[in-house]
Structure formats: C-alpha cells, structure tokens
Design brief:
The protein is of the alpha+beta class. It folds into three domains: 2-62 and 198-224, Pseudouridine synthase, CATH 3.30.2350; 64-195, Pseudouridine synthase (2-Layer Sandwich); 229-296, Archaeosine Trna-guanine Transglycosylase, Chain: A, domain 4. The protein is 22% helix and 33% strand. It is built from nine helices and 16 strands. It has helices at 15-26, 56-60, 96-104, 127-132, 171-181, 207-212, 215-218, 236-243, 291-296; strands at residues 2-9, 41-50, 64-72, 74-75, 86-87, 108-112, 121-122, 125-126, 142-155, 158-165, 186-196, 199-200, 231-233, 262-266, 272-279, 282-288. β14 and β15 form a beta hairpin. The longest helix is centred in the first third of the chain and has 12 residues, at 15-26. The radius of gyration is 22 Å and the shape is elongated. The N and C termini lie close together (10 Å).
Amino acid sequence: MFGILNCDKPLGITSRSVVNAVHRQVRPCKAGHAGTLDPLATGVLLVPVGQAVRLTSYLQELPKEYCGVFRFGVQTASGDLELTPEPMENAPIPTLEQVEVARDQFLGDIEQVPPAHSAIKIDGQRAYRLARQGQDVKMKPRKVRIDTIEILRYEYPDLHLRIVCGSGTYIRSLGVDLAAACGTVAVMTSLRRTAIGDFRVEQAHTLDEIREGDVEGMLQSPLLGLPTMPHVCLRDDELLRIEQGQILSLDPSPLFSEADEEIAAIDENQRLRALLCQKGGGWRAKRGFPLDAEISCDG
C-alpha cells in the first residue's frame, strides 16, 4: 500500500485514535498523520499509509480550511469548551462593522501566541499538561499565515467563520485574538476542518467506513499531496539509475526548470517513484519510493 487516506475525524476522539484504527486495517504497513486535530474538532485528517509516511512534512505544509464558531462574551483558559466558559462582566456587543475591521488585522503573515492548552512542548513536556497542573505557562509567539477570514454569519453572541491558513495556526487563538480586537472575549464552540490542500471533507471517509471497508481502495495518490511540485515522467532505465543513487541529467521542460529545488519523478503509470533534488549538475533522489518497498509496505 502506498497512498493517502482522507479521514473525517469525529468529535471527542484524538487524532492518534484515528491513526490506530487505520493501522489495524493496513498492517504491516505503516500509518501516520499530517496535522493533528484536537479531540473537540472534527473533519479532514490525512493519514499517509506505507511509503507515504515519508511525505508527512509535505502534507503538513498544505493550506488548511476551517469552519469555526466563536461565542463572544464568555471565555476559558483553553480558548475552547475543554473548560467551563465564564462570562465577562458587562461584555460589549461588537457590531458587524467592528468585527470586519478587526478581522482585517489578522490577514497575511502575523505573530500568534499559541494557547497554553496545546500540544506544544516546553522543556520536553506538553504545554497542556503543565497548564492542567496549574502552572503559569508562557507561550512564545510564532509566525503564521492567514489567507482568508470569511464571516459566514454573525448573530450575537455567535460568530461563524471560514478560515484558510497555513501550517501551525491555532484557530481558537485566532478567535480569542479577534474578540480582543473588538474589546471583548470569546470561546471557540466548534471547529471543523473542511480541507487540507485538495483533500476535502466531502470526500473524506468516516471512522466506521475505515473500520469496515477496504482501506487500500480508499487511498488516494500521493501525488495529490504534492500539488505545486513540478514532475517529470522517467523511463524504466532512468528510474533504475535513480534507485541506484546515480545523478541523472535532465533537460528542462515546460513542467520544470533548473530553478526548481525539487521535482517529483513518476513512471509511465503515473506512480510516484522519487523526489529529486539538484546535485552535481544533475538530479538525484532525495527520497525514493521503490515498487518492491510498496509491495512489502516498508515505509
């Protein structure tokens, strides 16, 4: 097996639980995940299977789309419903215009402080564990990218948003910060990841489907996880040289150029066989995906 499984993570379970369910279906193949969803979030969770686990870092960099609901006037230390919301005394009621003006401050590359109740490690320990112990957890700001914040509906106190963002963005922190820019507080009451790159939730498989169905038949091409990477179709003899670690000379084509740092090598059957990088005036394998490893499920 060699592909990417688009899962629809249900409410109330961890991303690891989904991966474990997939792994039980694909043994002895490996299975991982690209982009953790909190237990209180649902939606697209990509599970690379077999050699596709070696593409995890590429999958994590794909843009993500979320639909979230944020309730103004109440707050929690976690920023979501993990804890019981507490009302803000005399909380102001932002107008739609105020929300729109505040929204624009968070578009583009921004500095975001992750929530203390997160899986980020501090001195080797998960931040949420320290926070749950009552420790004062200081989180460092990180640069994230927000491409879209669309106001789907606003009926106070609930604000419905569609957000398109880059890797590492905490949506609940975005909602809390947006509320603060409006002079109030907020808590995220629901979150659904509707897409990662071209993998959409409408095509995602439920946990029941995964447990009861043919997972191999559900796998999508690993090339879908590399939508912007140029690719080149190689002959069998060229692929053999790549597998042997040799440097291959390739003439630039409309599909790639010498300016590209990486290109995907595919065979005549449109199967991903290697990721190539420039070396010694030619191209050599940075990551190889040999067919015999695919058969043995060696990741």
